[in-house]
Each structure stands twice: as structure tokens, then as C-alpha cells.
Amino acid sequence: MTTKYLFFTGGVVSSVGKGVTAAAMGLLLKERGFNVAVQKLDPYINVDPGTMSPYQHGEVYVLDDGAETDLDLGHYERFIDNRLTRVSNFTTGQVYAETIAKERRGDFLGGTIQVIPHITNEIKRRIGLAAKETGAEIMILEVGGTVGDIESQPFLEALRQLRNEVGRENCLFVHVTWLPTIGATGEIKTKPTQHSVAALRSIGISPNIIIARADQDVDKGLCEKIALFCDVEKDSVIPMKTADVLYEVPLLLEKLGVGELVLGKLGLEAKRKPNMRPWKKLVDDVRKPKPTVKVALVGKYVELQDAYMSVREALKHAALANGVEVEINWVHSADLEKDKGWDIVKKSDAVLVPGGFGSRGIEGKVMAARFARENKVPYLGLCLGMQVMCIDFARHVLDLEEANSSEFDRGTEHPVIDLMIDQRSITDMGGTMRLGLYPCLLQKGTKAATVYGVAKVDERHRHRFEFNNSYRADFEKRGMIFSGLSPDNRLVEIVELADHPYMVASQFHPEFLSRPMRPHPLFVGLLKAAKERAKK
Description:
This protein is of the alpha/beta class. It folds into two domains: 4-281, Rossmann fold; 290-535, Rossmann fold, CATH 3.40.50. Helix content is 38%, strand content 22%. The protein contains 19 helices and 23 strands. Strands 13-12-14-15-23-22-21-18-19 form a nine-stranded mixed β-sheet, sandwiched between helices. It has a seven-stranded parallel β-sheet with strand order 5-2-6-1-7-10-11, with helices on both faces. It has a three-stranded mixed β-sheet with strand order 16-17-20, with helices on one face. Strand 14 (350-353), helix 15 (362-374) and strand 15 form a beta-alpha-beta unit. The chain is globular and about 70 Å long. The N and C termini lie far apart (59 Å).
């Protein structure tokens, strides 16, 4: 079967919900029996998001093969439930790095290197590689950013060329745009959408479908106006009001007939009838009144909640499994150092400390771990959250007052967290950490083994520092249990406390493998313990 291509572009503003819409569309097509692959094309010149500030980029999402990718790939995996690989995301930086490397090797035989055809050819090569590796019947490609951005122009030009090469009958352009509302009159305006489509058409691309996003209902008249001015069919303008439940988006698209609309335009017929009942049940369960448990999320980047996108979603998944509503209270770890925010932590039923890099706010995280330990408050630590739990234990249980991580204090007398041996000769920062899926063996009778219910798991990592095994025996004598270890017994993967309702932390990032209908066991365990504490 010839691969069909579904191209998603964004208009008017960024963060318009393009990634969620693309992910939801992928689900609808997968439910109709098609092998769907997804790819995100990011226009920024960074080689990958791994070294970018979470304040600018949000979460770095890690795949099985160790690729550090855009957070939209988290949406793709949570909705479509496909395990993605590094071919599913590439950036302008990667495209130029590859093209320049070819030029340095002499592959172009001294020719002048230009955006067209060399850069656009590399973009098309990477798209073709993804289609080939995945064997996709339908490829969904999302172009990051907004139409009109200078940096996205080579990507759009490449897609225009690709449409002509594979045939217009095999391509569909979906433009996701924003309809702003004038506050004084409450009037929804379509003019920005018209300008956005005009900019797209100026480079030779006319959208086949327009997803018109808004915070309120969009009436039929507005859709007809958009169709008239943007030269698309009336039934191809899809109004999409902001959903109060993220996982309702596929249901809304299905209700509006978008799945069949897309197949019709691509000349395809559904192989089977879609079964959206599990998603409807999921959304119904979200809306049911439930008791609330409060989780204090003590992080370094809480001003931008997208920096913890997968953590937030994993908490919601686990809450549903426990029949509770989770109220996430965002606490900046640096505030705790200034004696601020403790009232929020003390009123919470659980504490979660996620990952992060750098020394800012570290002592606040250590203090949060100590509070949870001393007050028997359920605690889950993720990556850095595990390391600060070990630092607290060393300082206040083993009485090693100067204990620290060598990441934050290179001269510490007690580096209970230290640089991994295979990281010590590395100088480049990007893409050089311990990344991707690694096995972990669980110790019988531990809380970790109980919540997982299996003896071996595979989890996604992203770290340079690890627990220093020189201290393992001392920690075990005082009640720290190393409940998850690498098969060679070298790397501590999970730690927990013996005399605590639920104080568990992992060196890996369990949030990346949590799914709406398969919540991650470590998060389920945390919310179960929080629920029991809330009852008391």
C-alpha cells in the first residue's frame, strides 16, 4: 500500500493544540485499522531539546532508544499507544548538522550548498526514513511553530515538494488555527485565520482541512465564513472548542466525523469500526465526583507546568486507577529554602519530587524529602528526586552532615551521589547521558515489587549521576532498601524506606511510560498511599 501523508501546520499562535490534535487524529485512524506513524518536525536550530531550558521548551520527552525529543511525542504515545523511536522527531539543527557533515566529507563534489535543494532534500530523506522504518500506511507529520515563522519555511517547502513527488491524492494538509475573542464584545474573530491561511497559500500550500480552535462554541456561520475566505469545503472546517478533559479530544473529533472525513479525502476505507468506548469510559470516570487527594509537586521549573507534562498526566492516570481526584499543588523548591510554601506541603497528602539539573533549589528538594520521611508522608522521587532522598538520608540518618551529590559540590567529603563511571570522560553535553530503556530487577517483598507485580521491568532513563555504591552497606544498615537494581548489580534503580508507608524513588523516569488506561505502578502506589493518608 502507498503511504498516505497527513501534514499538520499551525496558525495564528503557538501552543494552539496542534500536537494533541495530531495525536487524537492518529488514534482515530489506528482505531480504523491502519498502521499509523507520527513524526514531529521542530524548526529550532538546537540539535535536540536535551540541553534547552525547560522554561523555553518544556519537558524533554525520552524514548526507548534514548532519543531526547519534544513533549508532543508524549501526547503521541499516550493517545496512539505506539512506542516511538528517534526517527519520530528531528530538528533544523539535525538537518543542518547532517548536511554540513556531508559537505565536509565532499559528498556534494564541491557544489554550492543551498536551502533548496540540499536542506529540503535532507528533510524529505528523514521523512522517508520514518515511513520506511515504521512501515506506516498513514504518516502523520506535525510541523512545529506557526506559519509565517522564518525558521519553519524550509519544512513547509519540503512538504510542498513531497506532495508533488508522492501525488496530491496521497497527501492532506490540516491547518490548526486559533479564533481569538474580543473581550469587550465577546465576538469571535476569523481574520487572523484568514491571514494565516493566506501565508500558507503564498508558499504553494492550500489546507484541505481547517481545525478552528476557540475557547467558546463556534457556530456554523463562522465555519462557513472561514470556508469561503480560505477556499476550503464547508464540511472541512472543524470547530474545536477547548476541552476541559484532554482525553476527550479524540471523542470530539470522532463526533464531528473527522476520521471518516480524512479517510474520504485520502481515498481510503476503514478496515474496521472504531471502538471509542474505552475513551468514553475514561472521560466519564474523570468527570465523576470523587474524593480529592493533594499532592505537593516540589520542582525547580514550576512556573511552566509543561516542564512536568508527563508527571502531571501520570498523576492523573494513577488518580483514576485509585478512584480519586488529584489536586496538584505546585511548590517551587527554592521557596522552601526561604521558608515559603511549607503550608502547602504540610496540607498535602503526598510529596512528589521530579527530575531536574543544576544546583538551584536543590536544598529545598532535600528539605521536602526530609519532611516526607520524618512525617511519614507518602513520597515519590523521580531521578533527581531519588538523589535528594538519598542526600537527606545520608545527612540526617547516617549523620554525614556534608553529604551531597558531586554534581552540586565537587569537593564534598561524602559524595553519596556521584558521576557515573562511563560519564567521566565525556565533554559534550548534548545526547551523552545515560538515555533510554534499561532493565531493572526488583527485590522480592519490597514495595516496588508489590506495586509492579513482576520481577523485572524496563524503564526509561535520563541522568549522568548515580548512587555511590561505596555507601550502599551503610544505607542498608539504617533502613534504606535498594529495591531495584540493574542486572549487573551496579546501578541502584529504586530505593525505598523500610519504616515508611510509601517512600519510594527511582533513578529512572517512570512518567514516560504511564498511559491513560495503563497508569504507571509507582504512581498508582503513591496515590493509593495518599488516599489512605487522606482518609485518616
